[in-house]
Design goal:
By secondary structure, this protein is α/β, with parallel strands linked by helices. The protein has helices at 20-29, 51-69, 79-92, 105-111, 123-126, 129-138, 152-159, 167-184, 208-215, 225-238, 252-255, 264-275, 292-304, and strands spanning 10-14, 35-39, 73-76, 98-99, 116-121, 143-148, 196-199, 220-222, 256-260, 282-284. Helix 1 packs across helix 10. The termini are close together. The chain binds D-glutamic acid.
């Protein structure tokens, strides 16, 4: 039976496992929805690769999720891809409801008491024109200490490769966090200190423990998972695409399909660790740059019917 528009899945993607932090919030906010999550781990990290590469991957993945999985909406759970490509995706797919991510510096301004806010993210995000515009619009209201964290997302990606984290990989995450946090100045609630830290990369949510140990208990950490989940709900409601809350909640792997362009085990370990999902919900796929794979797959599917 062909699913109705409302029953079709929501596509969610990131360069790797970082977007699982957004998927976790989406799952809590929208329990009746189905999700297809694409981790582009075979092409990660995005943060230090440049806009043209990230934009090409974003287009290929969007086409793949539409053609192969018939998604009804797309959440770009990656700040770097949003900065590099969301405008073009919006232009090229005007009928696809689209939610992007950007560092939550606006909410941080409302939360900060000292008026000094730290922002960490990938180099791609923090040097983008989109971020410059956002920062410019708020610069009169607070002081921002902006720190690109080269290598951190990739270290987090690798630290999740085992169900029990590998000590050497976890210590690489700790070392990078220590270096970047130290470079930003003093954290705390006293005047002149950074009292709010914005996580401008979805991977960093998974280094919360390491970051918390460095900045102390009183500093606020701000991420985007929950606001993005609420925004997705609003968008689905406005477009009449929200799943019927009267429908039964689908079974685990029907509700959550996780796909990676890299190796399967790390995604399975991360899905189990952070979303309590069984390994069988995860699979691999190839998403070629020109999206041809999606077309071939679609043609094969049509032939098989
Ligand atoms: N998780 C991604 C973000 O939010 C990018 C990490 C990377 O691949 O560098 O920006």
């Amino acid at each position: 039976m062909t699913p109705t528009s409302q029953q079709r899945p929501i596509g969610v993607f990131d360069s790797g496992i970082g977007g699982l932090s957004v998927l976790r919030a989406l799952q809590a906010e929208l329990p009746h929805e189905r999700f297809v999550y694409l981790a582009d781990s075979g092409h990660a990290p995005y943060g230090e690769r440049g806009d043209a590469y990230v934009a090409a991957r974003t287009h290929a993945i969007t086409r793949y999720l539409q053609a192969v999985h018939g998604i009804k909406a797309l959440v770009v759970a990656c700040n770097t891809a949003t900065a590099a490509a969301i405008h073009e995706v919006r232009t090229q797919c005007p009928d696809l409801p689209l939610v992007g991510l950007e560092p939550a510096i606006k909410p941080a301004v409302a939360l900060s008491q000292t008026g000094r806010i730290g922002v960490i993210g990938t180099r791609g995000t923090l040097t983008s024109g989109k971020f410059a515009l956002l920062l410019g619009s708020l610069q009169s209201q607070a002081e921002f200490v902006v720190q690109p964290c080269d290598g951190l997302a990739y270290a987090i990606e690798r630290s999740t490769e085992h169900a029990v984290p590998d000590a050497a990989e976890s210590s690489e995450v700790r070392e990078l966090c220590t270096r970047y946090i130290a470079a930003m100045g003093t954290f705390g609630t006293a005047a002149g200190h950074i009292d709010t830290l914005v996580l401008g990369c979805t991977h960093y949510v998974f280094a919360e423990e390491e970051l918390r140990a460095l900045i102390g208990p009183a500093v606020r950490l701000v991420d985007t998972g929950e606001p993005v989940a609420r925004q997705t709900r609003r968008l689905l409601q406005a477009t009449g695409l929200l799943a019927d809350p009267g429908d039964e909640i689908p079974a685990a792997c029907d509700r959550m399909q996780l796909i990676t362009t890299g190796s399967l085990l790390p995604l399975q370990a991360a899905a189990q660790r952070w979303l309590q999902l069984p390994a069988r919900c995860c699979s691999t796929a190839t998403v070629p740059a020109d999206g041809a794979g999606a077309m071939v797959h679609e043609a094969n599917r049509a032939l098989a019917q």
